[in-house]
Structure formats: C-alpha cells, structure tokens
C-alpha cells in the first residue's frame, strides 16, 4: 500500500501544502490548492483546482471521499476550523470559519456558508445561496431552518479540533 498522497501541479498551477498540514494516503491535491497549518485532507478526498484556487484554512479538515472543485469565476474558500464531512462536495463555494458541512452534502457555485453554520447531511445548497452566520441549513434544496445554539456551535469547534488530533495520529502511523 502506498503511503503517499498525489500532490501535483496542473496547467502551470502548483499546490502549496504547509508542512503542518496532513494529506492522507490516496488523497489527491492537484493545481492551485493551498493547505494552511493544521489542515487535513483524508483518504480518497480530491481537491482539484485547475480553473480557480482552492484554499483550506488552518485546522480545517476535508474528510474521506470529499470533492472540492472550482469553475472559472468560482474559487473554493474553506475558512479556519471547518469540517467538510465524508462524501461532501464543495464546488466553487465559500465556507466561512467554524462551519461543518455534513456527510454527503453538496454546496454549489457561488454559495456562501456563514461562519459557525451547520449544513445538514445530504443537504443541497443551491448556486448563489447565502447562509447567515450561525445557521442550521437542511433539505433539498437547502433552507435555513433555525439559528444554532451556543452549545451546537461549540460542538462544531470540537469536531474540527478532534480532526487536528486525528491527523497527528494518522501521520505518526504512516511514518512507521
């Protein structure tokens, strides 16, 4: 089994991966992707930035089998302390600090998920939707359901912190 991620340039655009970021085996980071300190990209995740940049902020995680991709005019920006749940797709969108995008959710071009928000599992956030900070968004198409409680927002932060710890554990296992 390989213990390396595929990290490669394309069309003259090169990834910038901080030494404190973690890329799991079989993850793919291609093109103009920036991974800040403490960011993690997990098994099977694909970050493809040929058209526009992808930026993953400090201490954010892109979990197993996620896809982050761009279109012309639609970069991807993931803030700090963000969790992108397993099998989620973020396509040409912005996810601000402290958010969680649930498992299997899709966030489309030009959408902005406000800081400290939760996108429920399997939700479809349509193109151009603006989610206010601290919101719970759910459904197909997604709608703002309510404000998150302080306790729920703290849970989002704890989830991101947990993935920073997990990345260290996995990095150590792969260095053996």
UniProtKB/TrEMBL annotation:
Coiled coil: none annotated. InterPro entries: Hexapep (IPR001451), LbH_gamma_CA-like (IPR047324), Transf_Hexapept/Carb_Anhydrase (IPR050484), Trimer_LpxA-like_sf (IPR011004). It comes from the Bacteria. Pfam families: Hexapep_2. Transmembrane segments: none annotated. This is Gamma carbonic anhydrase family protein.
